[in-house]
Design brief:
This protein is of the alpha+beta class. The chain has 15 helices and twelve strands. Strands 3-2-1-12-11-10-9-8 form an eight-stranded antiparallel β-sheet. Strands 4-5-6-7 form a four-stranded antiparallel β-sheet.
Length: 471
């Protein structure tokens, strides 16, 4: 008799007798359950039916198990019995729930395949895992687990969600994206603090870009990682135009003892609590502070620097009244704003580029540190600037409009690359994809995207998973 299922490449391998492959169908079911819950499909998983919690616990208990490890069979059966017991406890509230009944059938099938007895010891739902003290994610995950265990018998009104992260970026003339996703264009000439809390200090220095214009851009960035007991001493990183070092001021490239394995970055191995990665010499450097969950990206494009930061929300809020002047936190002072409540007025007349061009052609500037030579300045028309920005930025969001503003203001094509790189850095660090796009106030794109929602094909994924799981 043929078996119903979804036709796709590799499906036949899921039916193979390999111990690992035998429970892949259930993992597909887990994916469907999780996606359905996060997608808001209340008809699949209701607040009263705790099948998602049962499945999540089972994955947590078995994620580290492999058939090559001694005791795999015993531990896997204990996890299955715990999974089965959890489904029994929520059976009443899950009557008529398709996911619940499919999970019950999947558990029965796996128990038969692994010759697991129905009676016997079960795994602990919250096994004790020692946190890594210099790994922020490990520490917070440990605290979250214990907080969830402690509050399980109390009111469910308490939030036990994972710690949130915030993003801040600065590029161009300069354009600032704050922790609240407010997009501003500011003058802020001189030294200004972007971030200043108990763990991290980031300060930028901005200089005028074009004579006769109020626009400025960043030519110096100073980052201070403050001491953290048991993990790192204080480290200072400083970048200026034409000097983007791959080390801290004291010449070191890392600090602290090795904390955890890392792969896919600079090769597998142990990383330290604080370390620097040089992505492109003289152009792109990343600073990773694993002990506080912070990532900083610094670039030089043309004569100026760009910055992107991701930081845990609880750490960003760790400051006192003397540290309230933080551009990433509160934005630029109103007197320093160039934009008008989200609207960025384009310059009416092109800037006087003659004096600037003479300054940029001085021998003190090196042409090896930017995408376009310093002398490649021109006067852009409005349409010419838009056409140039469209070469890098397909979506006409605020990054595109900032690019147009910068070209009209400076005539420096490097600002196109700066806007593009700033957008890509934001996409790699910003934790919330649905907040990536910001559109100028009153634009057609802004109105359209405020009503647009992506539709996921979750029912198809769920049916696919169920049919394979029942094979």
């Amino acid at each position: 008799m043929g078996r119903a299922g979804c036709s796709y490449r590799g499906a036949e391998r899921l039916a193979s007798p390999s111990p690992v492959r035998r429970f892949r169908p259930l993992l597909l079911l887990v994916i469907a359950v999780s996606c359905g819950a996060h997608g808001g499909l209340g008809q699949v998983v209701t607040p009263q039916c705790r099948i998602q919690k049962c499945t999540t616990d089972f994955v947590s208990l078995t994620s580290h198990l492999t058939p090559a490890v001694d005791g795999f069979h015993t531990e896997f059966c204990k996890a299955l019995r715990a999974y089965s017991a959890c489904t029994q406890r929520t059976a009443k509230s899950c009557r008529g729930n398709l996911v619940f009944h499919s999970a019950v059938l999947g558990i029965s099938d796996l128990m038969s395949q692994r010759n697991c007895s129905r009676d016997g010891p079960t795994s602990s739902t919250h096994p004790e895992i020692q946190p890594e003290p210099c790994n922020y994610h490990s520490r917070t995950q440990h605290l979250h687990t214990h907080s969830h265990t402690h509050s399980h018998t109390h009111s469910h009104s308490h939030s036990n969600s994972r710690p949130g992260y915030l993003f801040c970026g600065l590029f161009g003339d300069p354009h600032l994206r704050t922790f609240k996703d407010s997009f501003q264009t500011c003058k802020v000439e001189g030294a200004w603090p972007l971030i200043d809390n108990d763990y991290l200090s980031v300060q930028v220095t901005n200089v005028p870009v074009v004579p006769g214009s109020s626009a400025t851009a960043t030519n110096k960035i100073t980052i201070i990682f403050k001491p953290f007991e048991g993990c790192t001493d204080q480290r200072v990183y400083q970048a200026v135009t034409d000097n983007l070092p791959a080390a801290f001021d004291d010449g070191t490239v890392s600090s602290g003892d090795p904390i955890h394995s890392l792969s896919g970055t600079d090769g597998a191995g142990k990383v330290r609590a604080l370390w620097i990665s040089e992505r492109n010499p003289g152009h792109h450097v990343e600073l990773h502070a694993g002990y506080i969950g912070v990532t900083v990206i610094v670039r030089q494009l043309g004569r100026y620097l760009t910055l992107a930061v991701r930081i845990p929300e609880e750490l960003a809020q760790a400051y006192d009244a003397t540290q309230d002047l933080q551009l990433c936190l509160n934005g630029c002072p109103s007197a320093e704003r160039i934009d008008q409540a989200g609207h960025l007025p384009l310059p009416v007349n092109p800037p006087a580029l003659g004096l600037q061009l003479q300054q940029l052609r001085r021998p003190s500037y090196s042409s090896q540190t930017q995408a376009y030579p310093y002398g490649s300045l021109q006067v852009f028309s409005n349409e010419g600037a838009k056409e140039h920005c469209r070469e890098k930025l397909e979506v006409q969001d605020i990054y595109f409009h900032s690019c147009v503003f910068d070209l009209l203001t400076t005539g420096d094509a490097n600002f196109t690359v700066a806007a593009y790189s700033a957008q890509k850095d934001m996409e790699s660090l910003h934790p919330l994809r649905d907040r990536w796009r910001i559109y100028p106030r009153g634009s057609a794109s802004s109105i359209f995207h405020s009503h647009f929602q992506t539709v996921e094909h979750l029912p198809l994924l769920l049916l696919c998973s169920l049919s394979v799981a029942l094979m």
